[in-house]
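Journal club prep — side note

Before the paper discussion, L.F. wants everyone to see what a predicted structure for a comparable chain looks like in token form. Sequence:
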Amino acid sequence: MIRNTTSSWGSVARAFHWIIGLTIIGMLAFGWWMNHVPARPDRLFYRSIHADIGYLLLVLMVLRLVWRWINPVPAMPAETPGWERVAARAGHIALYAVAFLVIMLGWAHSGAHTPDYSSWFGLFHVPQITSPDKAAANAYEDRHILFAYVLLALIVIHLAAAAWHHFVKHDRVAARMVDGEPG
């Protein structure tokens, strides 16, 4: 099943979820590593790879939201309390919003940094949304890192909620993102 139904996630939505989720976790780990190892001559290379993946992640996230917009979102189980429905919706909105914010701050940092990180894997140059400015580059980078930690906290909450659904509530809310079966 490619498309979503009112009770299950389709294969495209599940692929977007796992590819984007694992990429974000990888980017958080890679970003942490880049900022916690001593400065080296190849630092620009690693930051460029981080930016290249960030640009790709932005495109994937936009495609994911378009797919979500044209497909139904599986309903929560009927017995789900109202506060849980509100928390789930708020949590997903926060995940999307902060992920986009982190990416946009990274892109702003790229344009403000000299040299910029606009070369996408050496194939073409990504248009930059800011101009070179050392003070702005530092501010964008600081905020990019701050909100990356906020995103990490939201991911931990998301994973805890999935575990709670699976191990405590014993419903199929989390499992259907893995196997696509209704629930």
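L.F.'s comment for the group: The longest helix spans residues 134-169. Keep this in mind when we get to the figures.
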